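Problem: given the chain below (204 residues), write out its structure.
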Amino acid sequence: MRKITAGLFISLDGVVEAPDQWHFPYFNDEMGAAVGATLGTADTVLFGRKTYDSFAGAWPEREAAGGEDADFAKTLGDVRKIVVSKQKLEFTWRNSEQLEGDLVDAVTALKKEPGGNIGLSGSVSVVRQLLAAGLLDELQLLVHPIAVRKGMRLFDEGETSIPLRLISSETFQTGVLNLVYAPAESTGNATYDNAKAHLSQAQQ
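Solution.
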């Protein structure tokens, strides 16, 4: 079964919208390596349409320019790119295609296909749906030490909670936290009495 890893830039107050407006002062080699570990090792990348448009509007030109990020730009160009959209799309960036049919059904089938890791960058609506469906294997949050105070948050209102477990953590020199989570079992029905019992044991 192929693994799906999503990576998101997120502020301290949970904002994931328009990271281009607050993210770049915190970008350094450590973050570049972390992003590369998510996308650079994938042979397929899932995108929401807005995120894809942002990538397609920048990375082909960077590859052609031959600058210091040209190798990463070529890597992105070479991978299979699948775009989630309800509108019919036309593509100019190579190896791009539109996801056909229902998202959950299509991604379930994609995970069963032969191949390597599947990456997901940004694309918050897609991340939400895959988390809710139990299809996301890892969620990498690059938590920036800034309260943006406006914009879409990662988690919206919902009826069902989504428990996660922390599988790795790292602090960058900029103060950014690199936190990687995986799905967890239900947290159960613990109450204040359970917490009080733990406090009593800790004080003994």
